[in-house]
């Protein structure tokens, strides 16, 4: 199963869990699995600007493969001004 690391801003959906394990073949399915487990988390994950899989940052990663032993990080959108 992939190990998904969750930013502090998402831990309200997970009762404080910083990381969870999820089985999914691609990022879209991973988000769907997390949404089933933690209702409401899917929308902010879908809006993440990029996803890092095993240290490689990927923009527009919906259909990117998630290896079974992957480490996945959803990167927050930062806005400046």
In this structure, how is the largest beta sheet organized? 5 strands, mixed
Summarize the helix and strand pattern as letters: EEHHEEE
Which structural class best describes the helix and strand composition? alpha+beta
In spatial order, strands of the major sheet run: 2-1-5-3-4
Number of helices: 2
What is the CA-CA span between the terminal residues? 39 Å
Round the mean pLDDT to the nearest integer and report it: 91
- When the domains are counted, the total is 1
Q: What fold name goes in the CATH topology slot?
A: Ubiquitin-like (UB roll)
Helix content: 10-25%
Which SSEs are present, and which pair or pack?
Layout: E1 2-5, E2 19-22, H1 27-37, H2 42-46, E3 50-53, E4 56-59, E5 71-75
How does this model look, in words?
The chain has two helices and five strands; from the N terminus they run ββααβββ. By secondary structure, it is α+β, with helices and mostly antiparallel strands. The protein has a five-stranded mixed β-sheet, covered by helices on one side. A hairpin with a 2-residue loop joins strand 3 and strand 4. The mean pLDDT is 91.
What is the compact description of this entry?
It contains two helices and five strands; from the N terminus they run E-E-H-H-E-E-E. It has 81 residues and is α+β, with helices and mostly antiparallel strands.
């Amino acid at each position: 199963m992939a190990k998904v690391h969750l930013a502090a801003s998402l831990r309200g959906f997970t009762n404080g869990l910083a990381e969870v394990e999820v089985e999914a073949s691609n990022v879209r399915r991973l988000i769907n699995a997390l949404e089933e487990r933690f209702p409401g988390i899917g929308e902010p994950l879908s809006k993440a600007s990029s996803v890092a899989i095993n240290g490689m940052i990927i923009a527009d990663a919906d259909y990117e493969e998630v290896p079974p032993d992957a480490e996945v990080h959803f990167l927050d959108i930062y806005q400046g001004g």
